[in-house]
Every structure is written in C-alpha cells, then in structure tokens.
Amino acid sequence: MLAVCVGSVGAVKALWEGRIQQLTEEREREEKRSERKALKGVTVVWQERINLARLKDKVVNAEGRIVLKIENEAWKSLPNALRQMSYLQEWQIHRTGLESIPRFVGVFDNLLVLDLSRNSVREIPKEIGQLTKLQELYVSYNRLQQIPHELAGCKNLEKLDLAVNRDLCDLPEQLSQLQRLYHLDLSMNRFTCIPLAVTNMPALEWLDMGSNKLQELPDDMARMEKLHTIWLQRNGITHLPETISKLKNLSTLVLTSNKLQKIPVCMEEMINLRFVNLRDNPLQLKVTLSECASPEEEEDRELFGIEFMQAYIQELKNSNTQTCTSVLSVPIEGEISNQI
Questions:
Q1: How many CA atoms lie within 13 A of 5 on its CB side?
Q2: What is the pLDDT of residue 48?
Q3: Residue range 212-242, pLDDT digits in tens
Q4: Rounded to a whole number, what is the distance in angstroms from the first to the last CA of the chain?
C-alpha cells in the first residue's frame, strides 16, 4: 500500500514539474515575441522617420509652390510617411517605376498639380475625387486601362493629360461635369470614337486624339462650342460630318494620315480656321496650287493647308457643276425622236 502512495506522489510531482517547465517555456516564447514586436515597431518608426527625411530632401519651392520633385529614382510605391506632408501643392514624380497612386492621396487637399507621367501606374484610386483644388493632372506614359468616375469630383481641374496609356479606350460620362477643363490630351490610346463625356465638356478648348483608332467623328461634335484646336492625326477617319462647320471657334485642325477621300464643301464656312493640315490622305481629286510669286512665299506655304483646302473645295464644286451640266445636257428619249 505504501509503494502505491509513493508511486502516486512521484507521478504527480513529475506532472507538476512538466507543467511548470511548459509554462516557463511559453513565457519565454511570449517574451521573445514581445521583444521582436517591440523591435519591429521601433524599426518601423525609424524607417518612417528615414523615409520622411528622404522625402523632405526632395521638396523644392518653384514659382511660389511647395513641390515634391522625384526623378530617375526607384520608388515603386510611396511610403506612409508622405501623409505627414499634406501641405504639398505639387507632385512631380517622373521615371521612378511608380506602380500605384496611394489611396491616402485624398488627404492632400492643398494639391494644385499632380504630375506622375512616365511611370508604371495601372490605376487611379477613387480618392482622387477628394482633391477639389486640383487644377492639373498628368498621368501620360503609364499603364492605365480605365479612369474612375470619381475624378469628376476635381471640380477645379483645368488640364488633363492621359496620353500614351495604350489600352485606354473610354472615359466615364461623369467627366462632363468638369466645368473648367479646357485642355485634354488622349493621344496614343485605343479610342474608337470621341467619348460622349468629351463632346459634353462645356469649357473644352484644346483636344488631342491623335494616334487612336477613330474612324469617324460624331455628328454632335458641334456641342464643343469653345473648341479652338483639335489634333486628329494618325487615325482611320474616312469622312468629316457636315456639322464640323458649326465649330465656329475652331482655328487649328490637324487631320494628317487618315483615310479621307474628300474635303466637305461646308468647311469653306469655317472662317476662323487658320491652320489645317490634310497631308497623307487618299483624296479623290488631285489639286495643284498655283506658283508663288517669290521663294519666301513658297517656304511659308502649307502644301496641304488652308490654301490647299480652299482650292480643293473649289475644284470639287466645279466638278459637281460639270457633272450636273453633263447630266442635264443629255436629251431625253422624246427629244431624240423629235430631232430625228
């Protein structure tokens, strides 16, 4: 009986000691975890301080603005430390390999210019719409495929450059709410038509849609009443709508390297047109301009410019008149009988 008791006490003692050892080991592991966490926290804090100092070294004053200027450095993402610099008025971040615009961009309510051209940005966050003071946005030469409708919240936006994003093919209709936007660059993308948002922009004056996949222009393009310059080079436009003549303020029209077969007669009504280029189009009529009086005049002449357009239209009108005359001069069957 005594042996049993001694054995039981030994077993209990071993169990107790085992539990104590286990608790001790767990406590040591927890202490090590806490130490690592604390060390990591200190590391993060110091890293943020280093990032903040690094960013502050890149702040300059330009034309009275506080500008963050980073070029030709590796910054695939922007650190959280940047949040502490919400006083910035302009970002100029070029050729850094930046892949994303931080979602905390919305806290920069003093931002007037956001220039992130020539990076690898794939998306504009919806928080961009919180930048109500933003006047200029440049995201050309990136990898954007779509634009968030929240951009319409940038009610003071005047210039928007989305050129050379390659796969961009549409804009949300909400962008027509940008009441102050007068400069828009959509060149070298994949647009097959001028977006409705563009034709409805009330203040638009300058539009570049060169090097896209346009085949025609919308009949309602006359809505762009303030438009004075439009670049449409290197597309596949086959004809111009009659409504183009209603763009009364248009002074510059570039249509080089398209598929136009004729110039509509209505374009002679565009009295404010000062520069036009129709080079490299398969026009049906061959027009030769008269010789200039002096070599200086010849140098100044745009071979496929205003003078060419006017001469082409006159030639087209003459051609149509001759066609009508030829048709009218053919005697009908009764007249032929009488003449016989």
A1: 2
A2: 85
A3: 999 999 999 999 999 999 999 999 999 999 9
A4: 154
- Identify whether the C-beta of residue 99 lies closer than 8 Å to the C-beta of residue 77: yes
Query: What burial letters (b/e) apply to 5-38, b meaning 16+ CB within 10 Å?
Result: eeeeeeeeeeeeeeeeeeeeeeeeeeeeeeeeee
Calpha distance 311→317 (Å, rounded): 10
204: number of CA atoms within 13 Å, CB side? Answer: 26
Side-chain half-sphere exposure of 326, counting CA atoms within 13 A:
6
Q: What is the pTM of this model?
A: 0.81
Distances (CA, A) of 30 to 10, 26, 37, 38, 40: 30, 6, 10, 12, 15
| pLDDT band with cut points at 50, 70 and 90 for residue 334 | very low
Length, in residues, of the chain: 340
> C-alpha 302: how far from its chain's center?
31
For residue 55, the Cα-to-chain-centroid distance in whole angstroms is 27
Please count the CA atoms within 13 angstroms of the CA of 54 that sit on its side-chain side. 15
What is the rounded distance in angstroms from the CA atom of residue 271 to the CA atom of residue 274?
8
In sign, the C-alpha dihedral spanning 27, 32, 33, 39 is positive
Q: Residue 2 burial by CB count (10 A; 0-12/13-18/19+): exposed, middle or buried?
A: exposed
Which pairs from 49-52 meet CB under 8 Å and 24+ separation?
49/81, 51/79, 51/80, 51/81, 51/82, 52/79, 52/81, 52/82, 52/84, 52/85
From residue 295, alpha-carbon distances to 277, 290, 301, 302, 307 in Å are 21, 13, 10, 13, 17
